[in-house]
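sorry for the late reply, my laptop died twice this morning and i had to redo everyting from scratch. anyway the thing you sent over, i finally got around to it. pasting the sequence first so we're on the same page, its 263 residues, then the predicted structure underneath. double check i copied it right bc i was rushing
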Amino acid sequence: MPERSPSARARWVRAVADGLSLVLPTDCAGCGAWDVAVCPGCRDLVSLTPVRSDRDAPMLSLPGDAGPLLPVWSLADYAGPVRGLVLAWKRTGRADVGRVLLDRARRGAQVWAHDPDLLLDGDVVVMPAPSGWRRRTRGLLVAADLADAVAAGIAVSGAMEAGRSVRSVDALRRSGGRAHQTGLGARARARNRTSGVRLLAPPGREDVVVLVDDVLTTGATLATCARVLTRAGARVAGALVLAATPPPGRVGPTTQVAPANVD
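ok and here's the structure:
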């Protein structure tokens, strides 16, 4: 099964981004605070204690299902400053923001590994949701970077049985369908992803898979990934996302933060 290694282009893109961050002015991608990539207030909106979010994702269930297809946990609401952080990393490739979010994901995964609803009773394969070819060409593999961070967190969590391994494997690819889900409604997302994922190689029989993605909206992508893996004989224990879209009408602590030292 192919384990992920960064391409030469991806390494070049990150090196350029890191170099620019040393000479160009920066501000908090969440609230606009001056001269800091992510201010402490916005950083702390990405919790280190994952919470269940699958019940707010309608496409994780099929008609007649008793509940969601798989349990999903998130570290934040995809709203307000957190949305700004994710977009700055995902769309503009801000490596300084990415480092902060990856650290939160790694530390959150350490806590997540001990959740009683997450059964990690074998060698763990952390698998990112598939990225489109444009993102792969640009080397902006946000979900794959998150999977690496989550794998690192699980590995040092102390929750694994002795002798068990944890590895990050980028083995899911998009096939057909649209390249992006942006702008699609719930039903359209489901149609777009029903047969839009393929598995390069199945995990081993003793492996347990956990899925990772940056944002949970309807759950269509994660549901399709889980179905593809299950059909291949894999055991999928659950999924962790950086942020999940909150249900309509909910106003929580992640929706607002006061900017500091805004120029």
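Residues 95-112 form the longest helix (18 residues).
thats about all i looked at so far, will dig more tmrw
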